[in-house]
Amino acid sequence: MGSSSWRRSWGNVRSFIGNSLGGLRGGPNIASWVVAGTLAYFLWVKPSQDLKRQQQEKAALAAASDRYRYVEKTKPIPDPQVTGLIYGKKKKQKDSDE
After folding, report:
1. Would you give the distance in Å from CA 44 to the centre of its chain?
2. Compositional bias (Basic residues) spans (predicted)?
3. Whole-angstrom distance, CA of residue 60 vs CA of residue 55
4. Taking the CB of residue 18, how many other CB atoms lie within 10 A of it?
5. Which residues have C-beta within 8 Å of that of residue 18, sequence separation ≥ 6?
6. What is 24-75 written as a DSSP string?
7. Buried (b) or exposed (e) across 45-75, using 16+ Cβ within 10 A?
8. Phi-psi region of 79 (alpha: psi -120 to 50; beta: other; left: phi over 0)
9. Which 3 state secondary structure label does DSSP give 78?
10. pLDDT at residue number 81
């Protein structure tokens, strides 16, 4: 008796899912899902992506036009002969008191 009630409840679940999907089976069911997915993409997903892209472009333009924006600067590379990394005749430094 337990297995028949289990099968009946499983059949009820399957019929509920089938009815909630529109009651279509096989090829028409897949085609309807493809149409619904395509409509959902063009009505909800794509506009939100376009809006996000426009906001990023506006932010990039605003950052590029900001004259006080942060600009990363690199340290000057020291002369290897002055620092002693390369041996040989060193450059003569100009004296400021002359």
Report:
1. 17
2. 88-98
3. 9
4. 13
5. 25
6. --SHHHHHHHHHHHHHHIIIIIHHHHHHHHHHHHHHHHHHHH-TT-----PP
7. eeeeeeeeeeeeeeeeeeeeeeeeeeeeeee
8. beta
9. coil
10. 66
Q: Is the dihedral of CA 37, 43, 44, 46 positive or negative?
A: positive
Entry pTM: 0.38
Rounded distance between C-alpha atoms, residue 53 and residue 77, angstroms: 39
Q: What confidence tier does 74 reach under pLDDT thresholds 50, 70, 90?
A: confident
Nearest in space to 21 (alpha carbons), one of 10, 11, 12, 32: 32
Q: Is the dihedral of CA 36, 40, 43, 46 positive or negative?
A: negative
């009505």: which residue's tokens?
A: 43
